[in-house]
Every structure is written in structure tokens, then in C-alpha cells.
């Protein structure tokens, strides 16, 4: 069993905790950077990326999260979390963690569709995932090392690069745990590799 942290500064924290627990893993709300040492994987939840960015700066999370990623530990960013992990954010010269080589547009699906649901295919994983988009970003392009796992209307909405996974929608707001389980498998693989070394 793995221990998965949810960055507990702002956003859909308790929903992620419930989904992690529903998949049989232990969830921890991470409010201090020193808690990163106790967890095997980290979720950056949806919320408001600009607010989260400020709070991450204020509570000195940036360097510890970069170190966490450098150790090979998986990070899953959903919605605002995807924005925080992106290498580039369109129209901003202040990207944050820059751990996945994608360029994201914030609030990208237009006003009249700020929130909507769509059935999307996640390659190799799910044929129809009921994806809930709430003022969601998308990635317009991705570097060669990025695996594009799902697109919607030609835009990248799920992607993975090494130990970093991002989704533009909110998997934690559905009962469908398959994307969370995919992340759990990434985390378990890291734990196994560490034990084998
Ligand atoms: N629009 C938000 C942002 O860019 C993300 C919305 C969400 O996480 N649901 O911060």
C-alpha cells in the first residue's frame, strides 16, 4: 500500500483524499513541505492556480517539490495542478514547477463552456471516461518526451512525462477511479524499484 499526499493549500483537497482512500491507499493532506518525506506520491489538486502558486511560494514548497520529483516520486496534477506543473503557460512569463514539457492555456475551453462533461478515451486505459472540466486548461503542444494519453477536440487533456502525470479535468469528482489507479500504479512501481535497488 502506498501513502499519497494531496497538497493541502487550496482547491479540491477532500475530494482527492476520498478518491485515494476509495482506491485502498492511504491519503495525507500535505500542509508543510517536511511532510513530503512521508509520502510516496503527491497530488496537486484543481483549484485556482494563481492562488496556489502564491501559497506554494509563501510556504516554501517549490524547492522541496522539485527535489521530490527528482527522487523519481510521482506527481499527479489535475486542472490547476496541471497548470502548476507545466513548463510553459501561455501569456505568462511566470511558469511554476516546469516539470512536464507542455505549454498550457488556462481557462481554455471558452466562456460558454467553462464547465462541461465529456466522454473521453484515455489511451490504453479507458474507452469512455466521464471527464468533468471546470474552467479547465488544455495543452496545445508537448515535447517529444511527453506521452499524450488523451485529447479532446484536438487538445491535449491527459499527458505523462516520466513520473509526472497531468489531467485537465477532475477525475476526483466522479466515482470512476481508473485514472487514480493508473497513478497508484506509477507510485507502486517507484516503491518497488526502490526496494529492488
Ligand atoms: N482555471 C483554473 C486555473 O487556471 C483551474 C480551474 C480548476 O482547477 N478547476 O487556475
From TrEMBL:
<feature type="binding site">
    <location>
        <begin position="134"/>
        <end position="135"/>
    </location>
    <ligand>
        <name>L-glutamine</name>
    </ligand>
</feature>
<keyword id="KW-0456">Lyase</keyword>
<feature type="active site" description="Nucleophile">
    <location>
        <position position="79"/>
    </location>
</feature>
<dbReference type="InterPro" id="IPR002161">
    <property type="entry name" value="PdxT/SNO"/>
</dbReference>
<keyword id="KW-0315">Glutamine amidotransferase</keyword>
<keyword id="KW-0663">Pyridoxal phosphate</keyword>
<feature type="active site" description="Charge relay system">
    <location>
        <position position="172"/>
    </location>
</feature>
<comment type="function">
    <text>Catalyzes the hydrolysis of glutamine to glutamate and ammonia as part of the biosynthesis of pyridoxal 5'-phosphate. The resulting ammonia molecule is channeled to the active site of PdxS.</text>
</comment>
<comment type="subunit">
    <text>In the presence of PdxS, forms a dodecamer of heterodimers. Only shows activity in the heterodimer.</text>
</comment>
<keyword id="KW-0378">Hydrolase</keyword>
<protein>
    <recommendedName>
        <fullName>Pyridoxal 5'-phosphate synthase subunit PdxT</fullName>
        <ecNumber>4.3.3.6</ecNumber>
        <ecNumber>3.5.1.2</ecNumber>
    </recommendedName>
</protein>
<dbReference type="InterPro" id="IPR029062">
    <property type="entry name" value="Class_I_gatase-like"/>
</dbReference>
<dbReference type="GO" id="GO:0036381">
    <property type="term" value="F:pyridoxal 5'-phosphate synthase (glutamine hydrolysing) activity"/>
</dbReference>
<comment type="pathway">
    <text>Cofactor biosynthesis; pyridoxal 5'-phosphate biosynthesis.</text>
</comment>
<comment type="similarity">
    <text>Belongs to the glutaminase PdxT/SNO family.</text>
</comment>
<feature type="binding site">
    <location>
        <begin position="47"/>
        <end position="49"/>
    </location>
    <ligand>
        <name>L-glutamine</name>
    </ligand>
</feature>
<feature type="active site" description="Charge relay system">
    <location>
        <position position="170"/>
    </location>
</feature>
<feature type="binding site">
    <location>
        <position position="106"/>
    </location>
    <ligand>
        <name>L-glutamine</name>
    </ligand>
</feature>
<dbReference type="Pfam" id="PF01174">
    <property type="entry name" value="SNO"/>
</dbReference>
<dbReference type="InterPro" id="IPR021196">
    <property type="entry name" value="PdxT/SNO_CS"/>
</dbReference>
Amino acid at each position: 500500500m502506498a501513502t499519497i499526499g494531496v497538497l493541502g493549500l487550496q482547491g479540491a483537497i477532500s475530494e482527492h483524499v476520498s478518491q485515494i482512500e476509495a482506491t485502498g491507499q492511504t491519503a495525507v493532506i500535505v500542509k508543510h513541505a517536511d511532510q513530503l518525506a512521508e509520502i510516496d506520491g503527491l497530488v496537486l489538486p484543481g483549484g485556482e492556480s494563481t492562488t496556489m502558486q502564491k501559497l506554494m511560494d509563501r510556504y516554501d514548497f517549490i524547492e522541496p517539490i522539485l527535489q521530490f520529483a527528482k527522487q523519481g516520486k510521482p506527481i499527479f496534477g489535475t486542472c490547476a495542478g496541471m497548470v502548476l506543473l507545466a513548463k510553459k503557460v501561455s501569456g505568462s512569463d511566470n511558469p511554476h514547477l516546469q516539470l512536464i514539457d507542455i505549454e498550457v492555456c488556462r481557462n481554455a475551453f471558452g466562456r460558454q463552456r467553462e464547465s462541461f462533461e465529456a466522454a473521453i478515451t484515455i489511451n490504453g486505459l479507458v474507452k469512455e471516461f466521464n471527464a468533468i472540466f471546470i474552467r479547465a486548461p488544455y495543452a496545445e503542444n508537448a515535447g517529444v518526451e511527453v506521452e499524450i494519453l488523451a485529447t479532446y477536440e484536438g487538445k491535449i487533456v491527459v499527458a505523462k512525462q516520466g513520473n509526472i502525470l497531468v489531467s485537465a479535468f477532475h477525475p476526483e469528482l466522479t466515482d470512476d477511479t481508473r485514472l487514480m489507479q493508473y497513478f497508484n500504479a506509477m507510485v507502486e512501481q517507484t516503491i518497488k524499484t526502490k526496494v529492488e535497488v
